[in-house]
Design brief:
The protein is elongated. The longest helix has 38 residues. The chain is built from six helices and two strands; from the N terminus they run H-E-H-H-H-H-E-H. It has one domain. The protein has 172 residues and is mainly alpha-helical.
């Protein structure tokens, strides 16, 4: 009985301290969509991605043509010719896979370009979020863009516009 009473008191104490915290939320997707430099960077990245995808698609088309030619002519080829044709197709597929890795891999051109273009903007947005938290005395600010399953949010706790204002002030 004594343990239950102590646990109940501890639970109430924790609940009381949680209730005293000042909490707000933001939506980084909304914030970033209002920043022209971010929108421009996204467009640049999309154009670059489209360029690399087109190059890959062209290479895959060439490989498909090679494969179709191989399929239609393999019965008239010697075993050495078939093996050479198969090796050529496999070799070209590996080259395309390597290009995909170079363009779109974890350390690829697209990842580096995204880091180069977006990182400075994201740092400035994070600074604006920290400024709003400090100025407003917030203990916790949640990002709705990063959360799934939010079923209710109180509009009075939305700090998105404050972060945008602070970001713009920091840019001056």
């Amino acid at each position: 009985m004594k343990k239950i009473l102590i646990a109940l008191v501890a639970l109430l104490a924790c609940f009381g301290s949680v209730r005293a915290q000042k909490i707000g939320y933001i939506n980084t997707e909304n914030i970033l969509s209002e920043i022209p430099a971010y929108v421009s960077a996204q467009q640049q990245l999309e154009a670059l991605s489209d360029k690399y995808k087109a190059a890959i698609e062209t290479e895959l088309g060439k490989i498909e043509t090679l494969y179709q030619n191989y399929q239609s002519n393999k019965n008239s080829m010697s075993s050495i010719q078939r093996q050479n044709a198969e090796n050529e197709i496999i070799s070209k597929e590996r080259v395309v896979q390597e290009k995909q890795k170079i363009y779109f891999g974890e350390d690829g051109i697209m990842a580096k370009k995204a880091e180069e273009l977006l990182s400075p903007i994201q740092k400035e947005v994070n600074k604006a979020i920290e400024d709003v938290a400090k100025l407003g005395g917030y203990d916790l600010i949640l990002d709705l863009a990063a959360m799934q399953g939010v079923v209710y949010k109180k509009e009075a706790l939305d700090l998105t516009e404050f972060v945008l204002v602070r970001y713009r002030e920091n840019q001056k």
